[in-house]
Design a protein that fits this description.
Helix content: 10-25%
Structural class: alpha/beta
Number of strands: 10
Radius of gyration: 18 Å
Order of helices and strands: EEEEHEHEHEEEHHE
Strand order of the largest sheet: 6-7-5-10
Strand content: 5-15%
Number of helices: 5
Largest sheet: 4 strands, parallel
C-alpha cells in the first residue's frame, strides 16, 4: 500500500499558475531531523546536487520508528517521507500496513493480535523487523478494527523500549 511521492522539490522546479505562467515552487528544508529528502529523478533533471539518501545507521533517531496514530491521519505521508529519505536498498525495511515483507500478506495489527491473544507470544514474534512501522491497525473480516496502538501499547513498548514513537493526528471535520 504505497502512494506517489515527490522528493527533493526545489525553487528551480516550476509549476503553472492559473494563467499558464510559471512560478517558482518554494523549497522545503532539505534536512528534517536527520532525514534527507532526495530524489534520483530530480538529481538527473536539475542542475544542482541533492543531498544523498541515508542509511538507517545515519538517522539521527532511534529505530524502529513506530507510528502510533490511526489510518487516514498521514500514515502514507510518513511512509513516503522515510522512503524519500532512505537509500532504495532499505525500502523493503519500511512497513506501511503489511508486516510480512518476506512473503505473504498480513497486516501488522492482525499479526500482533494473533501473536498476543491466540499464540500467547510477544507482539512482534515472527514478524519481519522494520525501520518504520507506519500503520499498525488492521481491518478485520467481520468489519471490525484491531488497533494495537491502543490495545497492545505495553506489548509494543516491551518489544521496542527505545523506539521512536510518532503520534500523528488529524483535525476533526
Amino acid at each position: 500500500m504505497t502512494g506517489s511521492f515527490v522528493c527533493g522539490m526545489t525553487a528551480i522546479q516550476q509549476q503553472n499558475d492559473r494563467d499558464g505562467q510559471t512560478k517558482p515552487v518554494p523549497s522545503p528544508p532539505s534536512d528534517l531531523h536527520g532525514l534527507t529528502i532526495s530524489s534520483s529523478v530530480a538529481q538527473k533533471q536539475l542542475p544542482y546536487s541533492q543531498p544523498r539518501p541515508l542509511t538507517p545507521e545515519e538517522l539521527k533517531l532511534p529505530t524502529p520508528v513506530i507510528v502510533m496514530g490511526l489510518m487516514k491521519a498521514g500514515t502514507t505521508s510518513i511512509y513516503g517521507y522515510f522512503k524519500c529519505g532512505l537509500r532504495p536498498e532499505f525500502h523493503s525495511r519500511l512497513s506501511h500496513y503489511d508486516c510480512n515483507a518476506s512473503g505473504g500478506t498480513m497486516s501488522c495489527g492482525k499479526r500482533m493480535r494473533r501473536n498476543i491473544q491466540k499464540m500467547k507470544k510477544p507482539a512482534f514474534d515472527q514478524m519481519d523487523q522494520f525501520i518504520l512501522y507506519a500503520e499498525l491497525d488492521a481491518q478485520e473480516l467481520n468489519g471490525g478494527m484491531t488497533l494495537p496502538q491502543w490495545d497492545f501499547l505495553q506489548q509494543i513498548y516491551d518489544a521496542f523500549p527505545n523506539a521512536t514513537w510518532v503520534l500523528n493526528v488529524r483535525e476533526a471535520r
